[in-house]
Amino acid sequence: MGMFDRMEKGIERAVNGAFAKAFRSEVQPVEIASALRREIDDRATVVARGRTLAPNTFVVELGAGDHQRLGEWEDTLGDELRDVVAEHAGNQEYSFVGPITVRFEEAPDLDTGLFRVRSTTTRGTRPAQPHPQQQALSRPQQQPQSQGYDNYGQPPAPQQPDHPSLVVDGRVYPITAAVTVIGRGTEADVIVDDIGVSRRHAEVRVEHGRLVAADLGSTNGTYVDGERINTAEVVDGSQIKIGRSTLVVRFGSW
């Protein structure tokens, strides 16, 4: 029996049991399970040879009627859905940086039968807090958008990762614009006081919901996780080295 068959059998047992009284023409658990599998496939990112990182924290947004019906079974259904995510990730050889969590939230703008899935990559330990004198030398904030699914399970365009930032020398610089320039000059968004860094050394761009680091023709080059790059995708924990300085990419609370 394949993974998808086992997943549907597990959910089917719940639907044919106590859930059958609650779920009629509204959102079905199998629909949510399928959406979660698509979500981790869409958001999975190769971070190194042989390692692909996937999101591990999921929020399912539901209309009032569906949330009321599902809320009674949140713990049991959440366990089933976590198993679905874990099994699919195992078969696809995805990695997580923390435990898998699935929870439900009510969304007033959703009608019965519609739902959305949000996902983030959440470490098992709380990220370091910003330095008390941090300076956010970046442009006005753009809030990340939730990824949604209609009743046919079709997702929209990929979303921007939640709260990306760059950490250098104990300071946190939130990435709040489409392009963030890193360099030694005062015109840079993130200023690095390092003689080995060019005035406009590198930039981090938001492209189709992903973060991409790019060298800007610097003298000494830009390195991501030890490899010199022209452009390269970066994820939570990636290290961008310019001159003698290292910037760490972080997703999560600022």
UniProtKB/TrEMBL annotation:
Keyword terms of this UniProt record: Phosphoprotein
Positions of the UniProt region annotated as Disordered: 120-167
Residue ranges of every copy of the FHA domain listed in the record: 180-229
Chain segments annotated as transmembrane: none
The keyword Electron transport is assigned to this record: no
SMART domains for this protein: FHA (SM00240)
Biased composition (Low complexity): 132-147
Protein known as: FHA domain-containing protein
Organism: Kineosporia succinea
Lineage: Bacteria, Bacillati, Actinomycetota, Actinomycetes, Kineosporiales
